[in-house]
Design the sequence.
């Protein structure tokens, strides 16, 4: 596995677009997070919580996870570019000519995407710890840290769909446009499919793994005020969403793997 990862890293280490997009992700994420929290403090004024409430432990984990999730689309576009370029420039064919099997070449790409998802998740973890340590005591820093694990699954979901999509389309420009439009359509899917059916749609489910924390807080408050309120049994809980997300991730990678293995190089 380490050997495969080294080969995949060698393909991108001199690819400027790869580093530019990662640098944009690294620089924009904390700025958006801080700006969003400041925006809500200013909008709510005396009727809302102070800045510390958003950036302290344990709340910081859900807020940083939701903020970073928005930039997963940018990282997904990066995956589309990487996979399409490899197909366009026949890099994977050269790997096979050099003695690697198709299985190893494709598996190497999977390992690389998992490693990339893990890297950005660790970065989100570091950001959460920095903001949380600044605005609160680190004694309860592990409370709510499971949101970072959810963010990892979500990021891997974006990457697996991007991998599948790139192999399906194979044209970088077209794949990027359609990939972006697919997630943009999530805004309209509830109107088309309804609240029950839409939650099973893969891109909608994956993008919704990290819910909007401000709205989630309001809903929890409303539920606490009316403990007798009925809940819809057909609305998926977080555990079921995670299970379905893992199933979709496995499906995207499996279909992409089989497609790339059978098609001409």
Sequence:
């Amino acid at each position: 596995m380490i050997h495969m990862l080294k080969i995949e890293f060698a393909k991108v280490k001199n690819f400027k677009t790869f580093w530019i997009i990662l640098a944009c992700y690294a620089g924009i994420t904390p700025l958006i997070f801080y700006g969003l929290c400041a925006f809500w403090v200013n909008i709510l004024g005396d009727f809302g919580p102070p800045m510390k409430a958003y950036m302290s432990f344990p709340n910081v984990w859900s807020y940083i996870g939701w903020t970073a999730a928005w930039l997963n689309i940018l990282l997904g576009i990066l995956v589309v570019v990487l996979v399409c370029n490899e197909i366009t420039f026949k890099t994977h064919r050269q790997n096979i000519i050099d003695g690697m099997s198709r299985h190893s070449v494709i598996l190497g790409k999977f390992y690389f995407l998992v490693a990339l998802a893990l890297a950005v998740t660790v970065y989100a973890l570091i950001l959460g710890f920095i903001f949380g340590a600044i605005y609160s005591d680190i004694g309860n820093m592990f409370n709510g840290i499971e949101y970072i694990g959810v963010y990892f699954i979500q990021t891997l979901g974006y990457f697996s769909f991007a991998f599948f999509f790139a192999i399906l389309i194979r044209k970088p420009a077209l794949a990027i446009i359609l990939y972006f439009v697919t997630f943009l359509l999530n805004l309209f899917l509830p109107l088309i499919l309804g609240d029950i059916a839409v939650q099973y749609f893969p891109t909608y489910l994956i993008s919704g793994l990290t819910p909007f924390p401000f709205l989630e807080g309001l809903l929890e408050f409303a539920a606490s005020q009316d403990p007798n309120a009925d809940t819809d049994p057909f609305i998926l809980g977080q555990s079921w969403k995670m299970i379905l997300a893992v199933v979709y991730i496995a499906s995207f990678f499996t279909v992409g793997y089989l497609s790339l293995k059978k098609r001409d190089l």
